[in-house]
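Recall that a protein's primary structure is simply its ordered list of amino acids. Everything else, from secondary elements to tertiary packing, is in principle encoded there. The following example makes that idea concrete.
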Amino acid sequence: MKKIFPLISIFIFTLACSLTSNSPTPEVNTDTLGTMVALTTAPILTQSAPATQIPPTPSPAPQPTLTDEEAIRLALLAKLGWTDAELDFSMGENTGTLARGSLKKVGEMQGAAWFAGKDSGGNWVIAYIGQGIPECGEIQAFPFPTDWISHCMDANGNAIAR
């Protein structure tokens, strides 16, 4: 064993020296290195936003579409100045561009008729709310059927057949 030990020691020493020896440093090609850096950083530089760029304006959220009854109810509330809880409302007839019905204030006995028409923008407009004969000027913007409103009052207070 004494003869083998020096051989094993030499073998281990040689192996250790070959593993830890520094390999020669490769020569650096600065042109190639510069090109690689430029190619790597170019996409990064073009991705950053310029300081003067304005962020896109988000599109407005779509508005919910109201039914005719809901739109007329809102128009009546606006015209009367009542709250939703105060309005007892019913829809009588609706042609799609003209409508009529009745309303009363919650808790009261008396009510009134209402007549509405759609304007050129497609919005419901309350033409008349009342119990009597409407004034001609109130209803002239809409072609209400004569079986809905047969007469109107002129500027002198005379009932005029329509």
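Strands lie at 87-94, 98-105, 111-118, 124-130, 151-153, 159-161. The longest helix spans residues 30-47.
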